[in-house]
Amino acid sequence: MSKIILLDSIRSMQNVWAIFRNADWAWFEKVILTGYCPYPPRSDISKTALWAQTWIDWEYFYDPVTIIKNLKEEGYKIYSVELDEKSIDYRELFKENKEKVCLIMWNEISWVSKKLLDLSDKIVIIPMRWKKESLNVSVAAWIVMYSIN
């Protein structure tokens, strides 16, 4: 199984570095950083990432659309984590063939772009019990990453 997570313009360094740690824990092979995500090398990474950035493969691309199109050509299933009228419960991913998976995580201001949603094979949500419609991005990433194991 090949698992990748793509972070689209996540501003918070702490969230990005926490997702590096999540990737290590959930056996994800790569973190793809796009847009205005902070990326290594940075002296402030290791405190939150606990050096995960040194053994988790990562790449930076300004344009996420190009890399998602390339991953689709390589046979990856693309799953955006987003609240959308087409969203399904993330637990439905257990029923999918998960040989090659790329998760797309959003930034906290503008969410997953329409271009990326249109390229997604599925859009998934984490159902919320109360009135809040979202979790912190690193927490949401952990939940969905874990479900793919």
Record keyword descriptors for this entry.
149 residues, alpha/beta, Alpha/beta knot, 7-stranded parallel beta sheet, 23% strand
Q: What is the string of SSEs from the N terminus onward?
A: EHEHEHEEEHEH
Number of strands: 7
In order across it, which strands form the biggest sheet?
3-2-1-6-4-7-5
Number of helices: 5
The CATH architecture category equals: 3-Layer(aba) Sandwich
Query: What sort of overall outline do the alpha carbons produce when their principal axes are compared?
Result: globular
The computed structural class is: alpha/beta
CATH-defined fold name: Alpha/beta knot
Question: Measured on Cα atoms, how large is the radius of gyration?
Answer: 14 Å
Mind summarizing the main beta sheet? 7 strands, parallel
> Could you estimate the helical fraction of the residues in percent?
25-40%
Describe the protein's architecture and organization:
The relative contact order is 0.23. 30% of the residues lie in helices and 23% in strands. α1 (13-25) runs parallel beside α5 (137-147). The protein has helices at 13-25, 45-49, 64-73, 114-119, 137-147, and strands at residues 2-8, 30-34, 57-61, 77-81, 88-89, 100-105, 122-125. Strands 3-2-1-6-4-7-5 form a 7-stranded parallel beta sheet, with helices on both faces. The protein has one domain: 3-Layer(aba) Sandwich (Alpha/beta knot).
